[in-house]
Amino acid sequence: MHDCDTLLTRFSLALDGALPPAEAAQVQADLANCPECHARWRAMQRFDQTLRRSPLLAPPRDLAAAVLERIAKQHAHDRRLVGITLLIGGALSLGPSALVGGGLCLLLLLLIQPGLLQGLIALLVSALSTLQALLVTLGAFHQVFGVWLLPLLAAMLGVGLLSLTLLWASRTLPSPVIMINN
Amino acid sequence: MTAVAAQQDVERLWIRQTLTGDQTAFADLVQAYQRPVYNLCYRMLGDVAEAEDAAQETFLRGYTNLHRYDPDRRFLNWILSIASNHCIDRLRRRRIHWLSLEDTPLVEHVAGNGEPAQRRVERHEQAAEVQAWLDQLPPPYRVPLILLYWHDLSYEEIADVLQLSVPAVKSRLHRARKQVAEIIAKDAKSAESPNPKGF
Ligand SMILES: [Zn+2]
Asked: Which residues of A touch B188 (CB under 8 A)?
């Protein structure tokens, strides 16, 4: 006896002539003993022969021309797409362009007017030295107060803010209403 | 130089010319491969008008992706793989149609007209029968059969077109044939005929 499913897997190869002769002979022997497999083999043969007899169809005569037409359409579409993309891209890049342009103008102005540049440098230097003085002062306080420096600073800030608030409130208090009796 | 090598040289020239913008060279490529491409599309889709549209689309995709074509690969296999993928996509879009065919018992669908299949000998009826068989198969199983029977491709070439291993191709061919054979076997149960091919 044979396994029908195993035999079935060999049919496809047998139809393509891809089965070794010994296996083909075995298939033939098995087929003689099994009506089920024989019926399946006959069906596969019929399918195989019908398909082999089916002719190739002639393609439409103007296929190449139609393809070239589609390519031309696609190109036109691509060009439109590129145009739209450039337009949107241009609009979107206006903002950054303005920034860059402004920066360039400032640079040019500085090159033409060296005095302006000197003024800007002096401003920068003085800002840096103020910052340095602040840091030195803080360092000196830290030496005196140690870890209490931060709470002290916070307290000073709090007191400062409170007094500023009170000052502001006293300024905006409603002025006494003057009753005029007729 | 063999005919195949000469053909490949001409083909490479057309491809180079197309890549430099010469569209008439691409028209030559279309002329050379329209028959296999159109036939694959027709057997996959089973409709002349749809096959024509699919063949045009295949060549359009080939043109757009020509810069990605690997010259070591046979151009026929490359363009057939584009056609096959495109047709499978189209069939997936009408999935409901062929899945519903799959869900109904196959035998009833084919033998439903009450006439034994073996008496349908006229050519146009046979063509319809072939297409009816193919239409029963899920598209990925249809392609290897078409490439084998109408394009005379070997297992290795089918594997190259479908980017599958050779055993996977053999397995798909086996399953496709088995499924169709089941339809035919049940259909022909009542009408026995002489064994046509030995065994
Ligand atoms: Zn058996």
From this structure: 39, 42-43, 46
Mean pLDDT of A92-117: 81
Residue B126 lies in a domain: yes
pTM equals 0.66
Q: How confident is the model at residue A99 (pLDDT cuts 50, 70, 90)?
A: confident
B22 within a domain of the structure (yes/no): yes
Of B178, B180, B198, the CB nearest to A8: B178
Q: Are B95 and B126 within one domain?
A: no
Chain B neighbors of A75, CB-CB under 8 A = none
**Has residue A176 been placed in a domain?**
no
**Which of B39, B184, B189 is facing A46, going by the closest CB pair?**
B184
Whether B88 and B172 share a structural domain? no
Pair (B23, B57) in one structural domain: yes
Residue B14 has a pLDDT of: 96
Q: Burial of A126 by CB count in 10 Å (0-12 exposed, 13-18 middle, 19+ buried)?
A: exposed
User: Least CA distance to A25: which residue of chain B?
Assistant: B199
The whole domain housing A80 covers: 63-94
Nearest residue of chain A to residue B185 (CA atoms): A43
Q: A67 and B170 in contact by Cβ < 8 A?
A: no
The C-alpha atoms of residue A40 and residue A42 are separated, in whole angstroms, by 5
What ipTM does the predicted assembly reach? 0.76
**Residue contact B196–A47, C-beta within 8 A:** no
Which range among A98-102, A148-152, A174-178, B155-159 shows the weakest confidence by mean pLDDT? A174-178
The C-alpha angle with vertex B174 and arms to A45 and B147, in degrees rounded to 5, equals 85
Q: Tell whether A128 and A153 lie within a shared domain.
A: yes
Q: Which residue has the higher pLDDT, B138 or B111?
A: B138
Protein residues placing their CB within 5 Å of the ion ligand 1: A 4, 34, 36-37
Angle, nearest 10°, between helix axes A63-92 and B23-45? 110
Does B198 fall in a domain?
A: no
Q: Is B137 a member of any domain?
A: yes
The whole domain housing B23 covers 1-100
Count how many domains chain A has. 3
Compute, in degrees rounded to 10, the torsion defined by CA atoms A115, A119, A124, A127: 170
Instruction: Kindly report the number of other CB atoms within 10 A of residue A112's CB atom.
Output: 9
